[in-house]
């Protein structure tokens, strides 16, 4: 068996010596190339898991392995996209997208030499792929929220990350734009096949995008249910209104409602599969 790219074993996180217990005895294994969505009640620790994997936070106890290392730093190239695109207003869109190339090895050693040639071409190609051809010279304030989020995805992918972390990246968008970006994100994943960990409150989004959905308990969080999603690819918006899709979303909704008050249950040893 191959080693998982992410492996949390009995992880606990407490903020401060006597502060909030965010995660309790959390186990999560993610294999290379999977697209895993974390869902659950607000404050259950979804973003805490993302911060652990990104190396922005250390577990209070338990084991954390990312790409074979105990420290995520330098273990694997990571791309990040959040609900707020946080573009630098003094840079144009192309230069904003290229920021990881300026920071991350092995790209940064060649940044000064390639930023107006190869790297700029790479940024323009990604922008065109997400429907932003010709927008590289625009400033962030000249783009809509949906366009900025497309650019944010480009920035997260430009340095060819093996691991993509998405924290509510479409939560602030209107429903039509959000659904367009689901389709775009699915296609980018199919094309590039990074391992993806998505935090979301949108159960349709999780069912549309993920290969697995992990339901978390209320704080202190842990994985209550691990469910494989086997709907065929590429998934379409029409599929998201099919009875079996609606049944999955409803089952997840009921599970999260139970998770708000129910005692913590044991995690299944194998993810439950949802038939296509």
TrEMBL record:
Pfam families registered for this protein in UniProt: ABC_tran
Domain of life (superkingdom): Bacteria
Entry keyword annotation includes ATP-binding: yes
GO molecular function, one term: ATP binding
Matching PANTHER family: ALIPHATIC SULFONATES IMPORT ATP-BINDING PROTEIN SSUB (PTHR42788:SF13), TAURINE IMPORT ATP-BINDING PROTEIN-RELATED (PTHR42788)
Family stated for the protein in its record: Belongs to the ABC transporter superfamily.
Name assigned to this protein: Nitrate ABC transporter ATP-binding protein
Organism the protein comes from: Piscinibacter gummiphilus
Organism lineage string: Bacteria, Pseudomonadati, Pseudomonadota, Betaproteobacteria, Burkholderiales
